[in-house]
Amino acid sequence: MLKIENLHVTVDGREVLKGLTLEINAGEVHAIMGPNGSGKSTLSYVLAGRDGYDVTEGSITFMGQDIRDMAPEERAALGMFLAFQYPVEIPGVTTTTFLKTAVNAVRKARGEAEMSPVDFLKLQKEKTAQLGMDADFLKRGVNVGFSGGEKKRNEVLQLAMLQPKLAILDETDSGLDIDALKVVADGVNALRAPERSFLIITHYQRLLDYIKPDVVHVLAKGKIQRTGGPELALELEANGYAEFTGEAA
Amino acid sequence: MPVTNETRETVAQLDRKYEAGFITDIEMERAPKGVNEDIIRLISAKKGEPAWMLESRLKAFRHWQTMPEPDWAKVTFAPLDYQDAYYYAAPKNIDRPKSLDEVDPKLLETYQKLGIPLREQEMLAGVAVDAVFDSVSVVTTFREKLQEAGVIFCSISEAIRDYPALVQKYMGSVVPYTDNKHACLNAAVFTDGTFVYIPEGVRCPMELSTYFRINEAKTGQFERTLIVAEKGSYVSYLEGCTAPMRDENQLHAAVVELIAMDDAEIKYSTVQNWYPGDENGKGGIYNFVTKRGICKGKRSKISWTQVETGSAITWKYPSCILLGDDSVGEFYSVAITNNYQQADTGTKMIHIGKNTRSRIVSKGISAGKSDNTYRGLVRIAAKAENARNYTQCDSLLIGHNCGAHTVPYIENRSPSATLEHEATTSKVSEDQLFYCRSRGIPDEEALTLIVNGFCREVLQHLPMEFAVEAQKLVAISLEGSVG
Fold it and tell me: Which residue ranges make up each domain of chain B?
């Protein structure tokens, strides 16, 4: 599904990723953990195709295609989804309008017919209910005046509506209290499927209590330093990242 | 309000062209070039006007020659050569056809192409249209139906002949010919426009609209609109405007006057899409318009909504004089400038009566190398007890080479007045665009979505039938401004 080989990425002239290699197969849930400044968010942005994140070396293959030169919307059409650490506000655009525009843009790019308004509203209603979201959400401007928890829930709603092949969750646990964390995790777990993979980027082990990963990686100094099973997350929680950063804990 | 897929498809089909930029090939009759007393006599004679009208025109013309150009707006352009333009151009054999079957098919086709079908069976249900082509009104639809309700909806030329008492009483009563140079020229040479009269207690049964089209080269359009709403009446009126793409600048100097009596309400909406000039700033319409309404009666209300996307230069300040106690004035505006367009637009709210209220919501969007200014005046007279104004001016910048300016003037002589002013300037952020694109929404569509969201508060004040049209215009106006 996703294959990253020897990836070097420069941001503002500074090399942040320095030879990262990672492979995710269909249906797998991978977690990337690492200290601040290790390149976690850079990895999520470079996968989603954000301007200013330049691949200087290495390759990214997604769904069998080299995506390095693809626009963000093309990657989305191919099945890539990034749940933002800091979801962006779009005043005056209701969440429903935003979702509908996104769903149909992706369908159009794939050569599929637009979803009928009736089908769309039905799907939206179903997904909103699953996430325990108030329908009032949908009439408000995208993320405008949303609490931290509401913003993250809105990211998961978009994930549920767009049904991507690969979902990257960038620090989805940050700023969430334990109840909100559970709701978000339940939403994500409900979307786990044999053909859908997840890449969970997090600083803390906490989220992984609720979303069980198949594989855990430690990212530090721009590279994957170690790969293991879920037990690796627990080990990091106990010992910190000092071992990988070369600093005292 | 959703940005419909229809919108997107329309935009895609347009291929970055000004859709209304075609020229209708039709035999025209024109007065000689330039403006002088003989030309004015000729216009007046062509219209079969009574002597009082000609006198009023000549008086205005004599005054106009002494007036300076208004110079306070933040716009720049070469001085106008008033003698190098035509002041009267009309399709031949126009003699006001009795029915649509007598209208030149080329004219019907022109409006059809612009999306304004004039045959009543093809019309948008519930919208009556007066179609003004260069200097004359070519057809007014649904007149009989409106007459049943007692509503007068006709061209201003007909009104001068058929309802002289009403026209004499009200024309120039809100915008006197001495007001400003552009309005004064209009008073001298206006060629057509629309007259609306809503009798006491009547709620106009349909939306009224006028569609202005400039077709001839080197021709100015000077239309005059007069709307009178008697006690307890209501009318919603909309005007739309387009012109062919030409290298030269053409002058459009209109005057609109609204009069609302006790408990009357006038809702006036504009979707202005005059040719804006090309991407290098060549050509385009100079839109120098004076629009003003007076809330004469108690509890009367005048509401202006405008979507200004076209014109090389826009200079207009739809205003309200709040004379009647408890009267209400509103101004909702979206002004979009791209390439080298310049817009200096806003409103004046003049509070005279007690407990008068006004509300101003202005959304300016600048892209390309354009300049966009909000200029507004809120004046509260000493006897306007408990007057209230709320003003909100938001500017949105797209790119690095455009300008947005907000120039609010406040004059308050009433200690009991309440005034609020809020202003924001923001940029369409990379974050917003990336967020949309990461969800699969391509960049231009993402920009349209963001801008429509920014304008939403204003667009929702447009009549339903035109809201979708306005959203399309937003998309078209911004083409080529990202990437």
Answer: 5-477
Q: Does A87 touch chain B (CB under 8 A)?
A: yes
Q: Is the dihedral of CA B165, B171, B174, B178 positive or negative?
A: negative
Q: CB burial class (10 A; 0-12, 13-18, 19+) of residue B67?
A: middle
Given B449, B454, B457, which is nearest A101 (Cβ)? B449
B66 Cα to chain A: minimum distance (Å): 48
CATH number of the domain where residue A114 is located: 3.40.50.300
ipTM: 0.95
Which uninterrupted H or E stretch holds B427? strand B418-427
Q: Do residues B268 and B295 make contact, with C-beta atoms less than 8 angstroms apart?
A: no
Given CB atoms, is A115 within the 8 Å cutoff of chain B? no
Question: How many domains does chain A divide into?
Answer: 1
Question: Cα separations (Å) of A50 from A9, A53, A81?
Answer: 12, 6, 13
Q: pTM for this one?
A: 0.83
Q: What amino acid is encoded at A153 in this protein?
A: R
Q: How far apart are CA B114 and CA B212, in angstroms?
A: 11
Are B435 and A71 within 8 A, CB to CB?
no
Is A45 exposed, middle or buried, given 0-12, 13-18 or 19+ CB atoms closer than 10 A?
buried
CB B246 within 8 A of CB B283: yes
3 state SS of B176? coil
Domain containing A95 equals: 2-245
For residues B397 and B413, give the distance between their C-alpha atoms in angstroms, rounded to a whole number: 35
Nearest residue on chain A to B6, alpha-carbon basis? A114
Q: How far apart are CA B66 and CA B77, in angstroms?
A: 21
Strand B388-397 relative to strand A90-94: parallel, antiparallel, unpaired? unpaired
In this predicted structure, the answer to whether residue A17 has a pLDDT above a threshold of 70 is yes
Which of the four pLDDT bands, split at 50, 70 and 90, describes residue B120?
low
State both tokens at A101.
């525009």
Compute the nearest-CA separation of B246 from chain A (Å): 36
